[in-house]
Amino acid sequence: MSKYWKPGSERPRTVLVDDEEGGVLFLSSPPSSSGFGHSSLERQRQRLPVYKYRTAILYLVENHATTIIVGETGSGKTTQIPQYLKEAGWAEGGRVIACTQPRRLAVQSVASRVAEEMGVKLGEEVGYTIRFEDQTKPNVTKIKFLTDGVLLREMMDDPLLIKYSVIMVDEAHERSLSTDMLLGLLKKVQRRRPQLRIIISSATIDAKSMSTFFHIRRRNIGQAAEDPTPSELPAILSVEGKGYNVEIHYVEEPVSDYLQAAVNTVLSIHDKEPPGDILVFLTGQDDINAAVQLLTEDAQNNGLLVLPLFSGLSRADQDLIFSPTPKGKRKVVISTNIAETSLTLEGIVYVVDSGFSKQRFYNPIPDIENLVVAPISKASARQRAGRAGRVQPGKCFRLYTEEYFVKEMPAEGIPEMQRSSLVSCVIQGNKGESGGLNDLRRNQNTQNELKLKALGIDNILGFDWLASPSPEAMIRALEVLYSLGILDEDAKLTSPTGFQVAEIPLDPMISKMILSADTYGCSEDIITIAAVLSVQSIWISVRGAQKEFDEVKLRFAAAEGDHVTYLNVYKGFIHSGKSSQWCYKNYINYHAMKKVIDIREQLSRLLRRLGIVLKSCERDTQVLRKAIIAGFFAHACCLEEFSPNGMYKTIKSSQEVYIHPSSVLFSELLGI
DNA sequence: GAGCACTGC
After folding, report:
1. Which window residues (56-95, chain A) lie with Cβ within 7 Å of strand B?
2. Which positions of chain B lie under 7 Å from any protein Cβ?
3. Which end of chain A, C or N, has fewer beta carbons within 10 A?
4. Pick the CATH number of A246-414 from 3.30.420.10, 3.40.50.300, 3.40.710.10, 3.10.20.30
């Protein structure tokens, strides 16, 4: 890569260097051929804050194994950096530049934006891969956007990610389960492949801990001499964002009821502030519906258009959020965290931040995950406030005191890795290590096998996590997998069960259920159940029609419980000719059902590859239940005798549990 | 009588 340096030129003196003072030129793309300065797209590209760091970024990537880029939203880093890298020659010689995102939607939209800017057809030179959709062409695609989950999957077949020259992990500050997994494994890949460049892009300043993590000391492994290895010390560069200023307001005294306080704040904004839409962050559906009701009932607010927003809403209801605000009205969107990162609303000028969100916590002792309302972090609070400054200067009203924000609010949230069951991660790690069946078959050569072993997680307890999960959580994960027959006494994948489970992209308990179904002769039915279990919810959440919803649901209800009920819904959907109208009438989420069809299709292809013949048990739900138990026996529980309120206790740890009100068995319990 | 948000060949 050094050929892109102007010979004899002075190297940049500081990290924050730009073209003029650095004296560094990249000659790979002459101004005329790359079209600099002519089209309006090109001018737009140059106006992005990241543009003036172009040279610095290329210099750092050239000379450091890992570069950490701290950039606020709107800096243009996601769309521009992959293009800079390509212009500098990182995609030459059949190599690919990868850029990962935590969400599918982001992958698609960023890829199409970049293809447009480069004037190429999406899916050729610029492509993307998400589950169920591969828009790339081998040997043609040079810049590839993908979800971090997909890259993790790719590592199973290609543990050293040989085809990539640079991997940019975007939105790393979100610290999702798969981002953390990916970063842990990438660190290992880098030890074996020092030429691989990693760019970590994050919105928060906490780059220090990332930097410490990636400061690897390489073992001497005899690198090819003509390629000088880059510095092991990660470089950090920060790029300013493009958002407008947001004025922060705090309450003077702590509020006791954030729901009422949020409602009052909205009313006071409407009363005193100039036009502009309002976004309110609350915690969940209950809160949101209550606030919507309070605001709609209030007689003095005819000028307010109040809309709820959460993921359980039907697509049509979600789309209302994006419709233009009627003249003379002020739109108020009351939302969960979905509006913090996943959805961007234009036209928001005021944000009301309750300071809370619902978060998942995992207790490894009884092996139970809980959803609890908990205080958010400073990073979240800043992200929420930023939502007010996208189109013009805005205001953010925080329903907590400034003292609380400064002194008590944690800087970062707890990474998901430390809040979840690790059952899926252990499998992924093990698979990444051994490379799985495909690699065992393909990589007969000793050198490759050595590389694979070196990469892997021989010992899950000793794996180098970015944020280490609790020992209890790791032990519990190993225990569950051992009891399912997926890991052996040495915590290695068993053959064939363990390897087959690793091949199936679902929760290991579900995968085990599928494999058992083969023995019981009901795989055809079980994969339908597995597909439904892997989507959010197939039911639509309805406001004000709860009774009707329950009645309709009973039409599908099976005495055997929810799993067989899902099977009934699926059959009904197929029978209707996959009709969206049918879904609407039956309070079923059409998009979820389409996803069920996709996942089911994927599973049936996969099982065929694993040599499993699909077979239906027809009406024999007995075998169906046996297969379910084979995967979920760890969750078995027993109804307490004489319990007036239907209390169960888990077999394993005598934990008190109850049937969830959304279950079809719940109404049976009430005798409806 | 209840469902933060994501994701996977």
Report:
1. none
2. 1-9
3. C
4. 3.40.50.300
